[in-house]
Design a protein that fits this description.
- The protein is of the alpha/beta class.
- The strands form four sheets. Strands 1, 2, 3, 4, 5, 8, 9, 10, 11, 12, 13 and 14 form a twelve-stranded mixed beta sheet that branches. The protein has a five-stranded parallel beta sheet with strand order 17-15-18-19-20, sandwiched between helices.
- Helix 7 packs across helix 10.
- The chain is elongated, with a radius of gyration of 23 Å.
- 41% of the residues are buried.
């Protein structure tokens, strides 16, 4: 049977079956298997005011959010005022009455995926609408998100991507979509990305009185995103190239690079110490390269027609970072969040992932490479003598040269 893009919603507690037109026409969102699965597993409660999708997220109408029932700081403070703050203090403890919806029948009996999923506590806080009088009504479609590793590019990208999927699933545009942070993190370097991607963002902590949302999505938690590494065995994830195009467009970055095999662009991504969040006041990070200058010099000599450079991208705003990446053919760097930029490499691009002798390495970036059908090589240090103080690793230039040669052959055959 042809999928029309309509959602038939089960009614487990004496609710009428409804149809949800979550996508329209012949859009990619209508044909995507993940979206079809979400549509096929929709359950409605509370007179269809609360609809859960595949135990991953929910759509709620006319919901009142009562900030006074969420214990925690406001969030958005300057990081320097929160140094050494425990991470748990940046997540709200929500109690009964935090969320209120019109409901003449039983409240949702529903289980979200993930034992530590914050949506479970949101659901426990839900009560039928009482006499709470909101002072503000928000009519714009809004996605509520709790961010976990909020200054880590990889984990933030799973949130960016999930919010994009929610926007597409509910047939909205960026101009029609707002973001609500339901967390108390201080200001972070990636906060401006949310404003670039969507109409705006706000923090629940900045509302001192209840607010009524006409349409509020309880967004997928980051560790449940299709982009998260636990989904690495999936052959593909939905709308990844469309997300890449959207992200670049929202940052006003042109994607016009074409492959020139005689003049490949090689970018080394440096990791240097920096203070990213209150729990690392020293700014010390792991997985740094000892011999940066040597690598650039040796690779430039080995490939004299290539453009070879090294950058610490996190010093720049996101637009500048993206401009560097879309003009790169081969990205090289230590295993770390910056390699998430493989999402924005040209479609012919490749990644060389460097790994120190110590520590556990997950398949975050090789999975992204696979899903985008890019080229990939990995080097892991096996010499204990090449690991030195301050978490620095001496990288073998000959090994890097060999991997560049291999990727160039695949790229240009």
């Amino acid at each position: 049977m042809e999928d029309t893009g309509k959602i038939r919603v089960k009614a487990p507690v004496q609710q009428k079956t409804v149809e949800w037109t979550g996508c329209q026409g012949g859009s990619d969102a209508c044909s995507d298997n993940t979206f079809k699965n979400w549509r096929s597993q929709a359950a409605a409660f509370c007179d269809n005011n609360w609809i859960g999708f595949a135990h991953d997220f929910a759509y709620v109408r006319d919901i009142v959010v009562n900030r006074s029932r969420a214990e925690g700081p406001d969030g958005g403070e300057d990081m320097t005022s929160r140094m050494n703050q425990q991470e748990k203090k940046e997540f709200y403890i929500v109690i009964k009455g935090f969320l209120n919806i019109p409901c003449t029948s039983r409240l949702p009996e529903y289980q979200f995926n993930g034992p530590k999923n914050h949506l479970r506590s949101w659901l426990r806080s839900l009560v039928p609408t009482t006499r709470i009088q909101p002072t503000t009504v928000e009519s714009t479609f809004t996605i509520a998100i709790t961010r976990y590793e909020y200054v880590n590019l990889y984990h933030s990208m799973t949130d960016f991507y999930s919010a994009y999927l929610m926007m597409r699933f509910f047939n909205k545009t960026a101009e029609e979509t707002k973001i609500l942070f339901v967390d108390a993190h201080p200001k972070g370097t990636l906060d401006p990305v949310w404003e670039a991607m969507f109409q705006s963002y706000t923090r629940i902590g900045h509302f001192k009185k209840p607010i009524l949302y006409k349409e509020l999505v309880w967004g997928t938690w980051g560790y449940g995103s299709p982009m998260y590494v636990l989904n690495k065995d999936a052959p593909r994830i939905p709308l990844l190239e469309e997300f890449r195009t959207f992200f670049l467009k929202q940052h006003h970055v042109n994607d016009t690079r074409t492959l020139n095999c005689k003049q490949l662009s090689v970018l080394f991504l440096w990791r240097h110490n920096y203070v990213a969040h209150p729990r690392n006041p020293s700014g010390t990070i792991q997985r740094k390269i000892l011999n940066e200058d040597e690598l650039v010099r040796e690779i430039s000599t080995a490939f004299p027609t290539y453009k070879v450079r090294g950058e610490q991208l996190d010093k720049f705003d996101m637009k500048t970072q993206l401009q560097n990446i879309v003009n790169t053919d081969i990205l090289i760097g230590m295993h770390g969040a910056g390699l998430t930029h493989v999402v924005f490499l040209p479609k012919h691009g490749g990644l060389i992932e460097l790994v120190p002798r110590y520590g556990r390495m997950m398949d975050h970036f090789s999975s992204l490479v696979k899903w985008r059908n890019l080229h990939y090589e990995r080097w892991r240090n096996t010499n204990p003598g090449d690991e030195v103080s301050d978490f620095r690793t001496k990288v073998n230039p000959l090994a890097v040269k060999s991997m560049i040669t291999q990727i160039a052959k695949k790229m240009c055959r």
